Amino acid sequence: MPPTQSESPGIKWHEVTWYSKLGAIILFVGVVPALCFYIGIQYEKVLQSNVFVSAKDVQIPIKNMTSVTNNTWTSSSTGMSLPKGVDSATFTESEYFAKDNHQVYILGCESDCYWVPVAGFDPATFSILISPHGSSTIYAKDKNGVYVWKNSIQNIDDLRVMADPASFAVFLDRQGAPTEYARDKSHLYDEGELFENGDISSFSIVGPVRGYAFFLAKDKNTVYCGSRVVIATADPLTFTQIKFSNGITSSYSKDKAQVYRACTPVPFADPKTFTPIYNVADGYAGEAYAKDKNNVYYRGEVIEDADPATFEGVSERTRSSNNILFEARDKSHLYYAGKQVE
Predict the structure, then answer these.
(1) How far, in whole angstroms, is CA 63 from its chain's centroid?
(2) Which end of the chain lies in a sparser environment, N or C, as judged by fewer CB atoms within 10 Å?
(3) Which of 310, 335, 315 is nearest to 324 (CA)?
């Protein structure tokens, strides 16, 4: 019987033959493992791009800021003493670290300040990671490890952070400013300390707190205020900072239910209508006063009898017709430091 159109001469489609066995071997031994390997590589690339999307490596090499002479062994930029044996041609300094071609140094201060050589650091790959504004935390790293400088160092071992240098990076806020938070491929860190409770996959920076030297951060479970302080009542999904009408970020934040000043809830505040008042005359970074539909607030406390509808700050401290100094007013009263003065 001749083959039909759906059949080919010599090929038996409905029987197990030597060539069907060979095809199966090629499929499962060669094609499937190769395909799985390719998928795994692509997945790892996607995973890595997601893992580090919020933590940019802002590594900046130490710049040559000084010159020294073999006679005085002092830095021309800082006047600090240098250890004998320093390579004056390659010596550079920045923040609390310095290096030459042979050695890394840290700042030591007793009655005077001076550079102290430290062993085990690699000067060829050593670099400073930008320190947060207003923070005493300065990260650095080389091919061997991660290091952190805080207010004072009592022991060289205090410098070391048990982190992976290859993947270590500092978190930036939305304006690109470095924060005290950092991460590697496995852990979060705050001022060099292991941040055990944070969720690394969802951790992000909310922003700096105006007037304070720390940042707000959050993950899918929790809102954090500075050094691992938890704002227990805050909802991370809806938590955000509140800006002044001119677009500058204030020290206030909110979620769907509450308003917060720095780390503390503001009693009675309405998050939907709450507005900080940018008033440079009040002497507290321009944000001591705020209001919502119900109340006027001074540094998070309700000002009794103040009228939110007409309350406003003044551009500079002013004296009334009765020579009373004031910095805010409503339709009935003048205010200074949160209290009625007229």
Answers:
(1) 24
(2) N
(3) 335
